[in-house]
PhnA protein (Tabrizicola oligotrophica), 173 residues
Amino acid sequence: MALADLITRAGGVCEFCGAAEALEPVDVPPGGEILLCPLCREDAPAPAGHWRALEGAAWSTVPEVQLAVWRKLGTLGEAWATEAREGMALSEEAQAWADQPAALEHFDCHGAKLAQGDTVVLIKDLVVKGAGFTAKRGTAVRGISLVADNAAHIEGRVEGQRIVILTEFVKKK
C-alpha cells in the first residue's frame, strides 16, 4: 500500500497510539502495512503506560492493525494486556492470520539468517550416521532446504547423499 493511502486510512496518526509525528509504514506479515510512530515501532523506549493505547487500537476495523495489536499484546507480560488480548474480537481475515503458525527462522553458527537455496560451509567434520562417511570441514553445501518444523535443522547434499545438518555446524557463504 502506498504511504499516502496508509496516511489517509490512519487519518494521519499512529494506528496504535494516535501520535502524529515521524510516522512510517511497518510490515505486518502476512497482511500488509500499518502506520506507526517511533515509540510504537520501538525505535525509542516507550514511557510507562504507553502500551495502554493498544486497548483502544484493539477496536480497529483494519485487519492488519488488529493482528499487530493482538501480537503486541501477546508480548507484554502484564495482566491488563492479557485481558485485552483475550477480549479482542478479530475479523475473520485477522483471525486466519493469527491462527497461522509463526514461520520458523533458521540461523547459522554466527547468527546469519539462512534461506531456502543458500550455500553453507561446514565448520567441523561431521560423521554421517547410516551413510558410512564423514563430511569434512570446509565442504560447501549448495541449495540447502530448510526443515519446516525444526529451526535447528537444514537439509543438503554432501557426497551425493541428502543429509540433515544441524545449523550450529554451518556458516553461510
Notes: The radius of gyration is 22 Å.
